[in-house]
Amino acid sequence: MPEGLSPVEAGKGLEEHAERDEEEREKHRNRTISIIEASLLAVVAVLAAYSGWAAAKWATESSLSLARANAARAEANAASLDALNSVNFDVTAFNAWFTAYVAGDQSAMAIAAKRFSPNLQFAFLAWLNTHPATNPNAPPGPTYMPEYQHPYQTQAAELNAQATAEYTAGEKAGGTSDSYVRTTVYLATVLFLAGLGGHFGYRAIRYGLAGVGMVILAVSIAILATSPRPP
């Protein structure tokens, strides 16, 4: 009688074969989720490093812009003070001349006129051409003439405009830095979820955590793609 397997032995063999197949499938599934988690960790680690670096660069740019704004504002204030002092000096010099003029003191008028600044001297001659002694519509004095320039005030206005532009740029750079910081936090959350999944034995939980992580990663990538590049 030929040798063969009994039905019981054959059944046991099939059962063992099925168990080995199931173990192989289990290992394959575990290997798949492990690869997904490892890939998440690798991609997120690189993006988190970039986002943190970009946040630091924009924070530095913000600080520099705000510092330049403060410097320009200080220079504008100094220019405004110089303009005020210049106008006060010219007004005082003209008042001295006018007092001498009213008194009819030609010598005092000549001395006062010598103290005129070039700016006031030019406006003063233009003012005299309006015949202020007989013309009721003449400006009150040379400082009211269009010819009377305010170089310091012009400089102050330019510096104030520069300070405002630098301050706006600093605020914008600070907002960009904050955006990169938020994105770094999002990426850190993905790292946490991917690392947490490895502690669970249930694949459904691991796949769920990996899926949530992928969604957050996709949002983070979209934010990074549309954010300004570091200066």
Task: Describe, in plain words, how this protein is organized in 3D.
The protein is mainly α and 231 residues long. Helices cover 81% and strands 0% of the residues. Helix 1 packs parallel to helix 5 and helix 4 runs antiparallel to helix 5. The longest helix has 97 residues. The mean pLDDT is 86.
What labels describe this entry?
231 residues; 5 helices; mainly alpha
Order of helices and strands: HHHHH
Report the major sheet.
Answer: none
- The total count of strands amounts to 0
CA-to-CA gap between the ends?
88 Å
- Residue runs with pLDDT of under 50 for 5 or more positions: none
Oligomer: single chain
Shape: rod-shaped
> What integer is the average pLDDT?
86
The number of helical runs is 5
Main structural class:
mainly alpha
Tell me roughly what share of residues is in helical segments: over 70%
Radius of gyration, CA atoms, in whole angstroms: 41 Å
The portion of residues forming beta strands comes to under 5%
Brief characterization of the structure:
α1 (7-103) runs antiparallel to α4. This protein has helices spanning 7-103, 106-114, 118-128, 151-197, 203-226. It contains 5 helices and no strands.
Layout of helices and strands:
Elements: H1 7-103, H2 106-114, H3 118-128, H4 151-197, H5 203-226
